[in-house]
Amino acid sequence: MVKLQITFAKMLLLALVTLGISCSGAEAKSKMQKLGFGKTADGKPVDVYLLTNKRGMEAAITNFGGTVVSLKVPDRKGKLDDVVLGYDKAEDYASGTSSFGAIVGRYANRIAHGKFALAGVTYTLAKNNGENHLHGGIQGFNKRVWTAKDVSSSEAEALELSYLSQDGEEGYPGNLSVTVVYTLTANDELKIEYSATTDKDTVLNLTNHSYFNLAGEGNGDILQHQLTLYADRFTPVDATLIPTGELKSVKGTPFDFQEATAIGARINLDDEQLRFGKGYDHNWVLKGGKPGALALAARVYEPKSGRVLETLTTEPGIQLYTGNFLDGTGQGKGGKPYSYRSALCLETQHFPDSPNHPAFPSTVLKSGQHFHSTTVYKFSTK
Questions:
Q1: Is 347 labeled as catalytic in the residue annotation?
Q2: In degrees to the nearest 10, what's the CA dihedral of 210, 213, 217, 223?
């Protein structure tokens, strides 16, 4: 990667000033902008796209990994803050290991022992998380340069990203054509639509890996965030975070978020599952609604800012991760250290290790089939 001489935040501010766009919220104009964000080691250019809506919300998305670099959301007083963790430079995303804001695939989460069988054939994947395969491998979708296209309408700004994952990439079968569309709506929603087709049966599990802190990125921990999960079961894991196969009731456990509860209220209890995850790093089984229909999966409220994040999805599961492996050693945007439990992830998904659990909802995408999934991150205040 070539080293950029100015931070992303400065780059964004310079672009807005040059274009006469105010950062003060309601005055912001809705016109997608494109800025250079560096180059890959092999010389491919990397860009970042700036989406705004008429209410002042701003999203910055790079075609490197389809990553949400910045998401500026108003608090109850109208003040904008960036609520996602990330980096100032493309080269940091290339070397980073946390998947900040990225599209994760082919298979989000873990596959046990880096192996699965499909139609009688065993496929071997990289073991990049102890003995297991994690988030698509060594160079998953989060480390690829996607083709970007502005598909905005008169109603909302939208960015289409596409990528062809070739047969055998990271050990997965089939030439997989993937399209992800990010839309910033007039209602302060970041809508993510995933589509894919393959010419050979494969497995697929896509998600976005944004780390949220509704008080503002780099601004303390998320232990006082109030969380509701619309799920009455979760998938317990073994010591390597692979599901045991059980769908366990949350009742009477630290995993019951059916009513709004501070994330930190029970996170340090003496519980085997919490010890395995070093906190919350588990998949919840969503109640959902009709198959393929958007349903409310999670709601998060941050008391000081008044910000509310609602997550809606067509997926059957959601992974809550509470930043248990952030340790403050890496520098984020503006040189901020991202410390222990300074963010949370709400990764909408199929269940971890589903290819090795026939009773779980299937992640098999057959040749000729069309995959489609939608997730919405909706922001408001109270």
A1: yes
A2: -130
First-to-last alpha carbon distance for the chain, in angstroms, is 42
Cα 15 to Cα 259: distance, rounded to the nearest angstrom: 43
Active-site option among 133, 209, 225, 357: 209
pTM as predicted: 0.92
Kindly compute the dihedral angle of the four CA atoms of residues 60, 106, 205, 100, in this order, to the nearest 10 degrees: -30
Give the integer Cα–Cα distance in Å for 19 and 275: 51
Active site residue 370: no
Exposure string of 283-296, with b = 16+ CB inside 10 Å and e = fewer, is bbbbebeeeeebeb
Q: Is the dihedral of CA 213, 217, 218, 220 positive or negative?
A: negative
List the structure tokens of 160: 């289409």
Exactly one of 91, 170, 310, 347 is catalytic; name it: 347
Greater confidence, 51 or 2? Answer: 51
Q: What is the CA radius of gyration of the chain?
A: 20
What would the pLDDT profile of 193-247 be if each residue is shown by its tens digit?
Answer: 999 999 999 999 999 999 999 999 999 999 999 999 999 999 999 999 999 999 9
d(CA 116, CA 121) in angstroms, rounded, equals 8
Residues 54-98 have pLDDT tens digits of 989 999 999 999 999 999 999 999 999 999 999 998 999 998 899
* 76 burial level (CB within 10 Å; 0-12, 13-18, 19+): middle
Residue 179 gets the label, from left (phi > 0), alpha (psi -120 to 50) or beta, of beta
